[in-house]
Design a protein that fits this description.
Length: about 180
């Protein structure tokens, strides 16, 4: 558990297209404690925390050391939501809650097509979702009790997921007498 009294460190992860950024933005707006949303992919681009751009995959090869150095003071301070398609890179000590968003692969395919992803990237991400790659990463990298798998297919899912996470934050606050 992070030692912060300012707010928890919440990791929202999942295959691209599962709704991580939408969840993180809404949670940052509605949270009972101040939470800063960090879109890790955007941070990588903006702060040049990458080694190269992979044309075939249309994505950046992240410099993990630079990224972790950039995030360490933010994670230490607490009160952040890390939004990224992978989670095992983040040290276990950072995370108070790891939310893995899941989506039916046919819905996911449609979402990625709308983003104009190359076919190979759509196929790869779809296979990753079917094979539960991100969920397995989360479960092997963090204590079972802090990893939560949530469906993210409809607006109703988004609303109930945000409510659930806010209830968790309230409990987190009470455990630390921050209420």
């Amino acid at each position: 558990m992070s030692s912060s009294n300012k707010g928890p460190v919440i990791i929202i992860t999942g295959t691209p297209g599962t709704g991580k950024t939408t969840h993180a933005e809404l949670l940052a707006q509605e949270s009972p404690v101040p939470l800063k949303h960090i879109n890790v992919g955007e941070m990588v681009k903006q702060k040049n925390l990458y080694e190269a751009f992979d044309e075939e995959w249309q994505s950046y090869t992240v410099d993990e050391d630079k990224l972790l150095d950039e995030l360490e003071p933010l994670a230490s301070a607490g009160g952040i939501i890390l939004d990224w398609h992978t989670c095992e890179i983040f040290p276990e000590r950072w995370a108070d809650l790891v939310v893995v968003l899941r989506c039916d692969h046919t819905k996911l395919w449609d979402r990625l097509e709308k983003r104009n992803y190359p076919l190979k990237k759509i196929q790869e991400n779809n296979e990753a979702e079917i094979m539960e790659v991100v969920l397995d990463e989360a479960r092997s990298s963090y204590p079972q009790e802090i990893v939560v798998e949530l469906q993210s297919e409809r607006t109703e899912d988004l609303e109930s997921n945000i409510q659930r996470i806010m209830q968790w934050i309230e409990a987190w606050k009470e455990d630390r007498d921050l209420a």
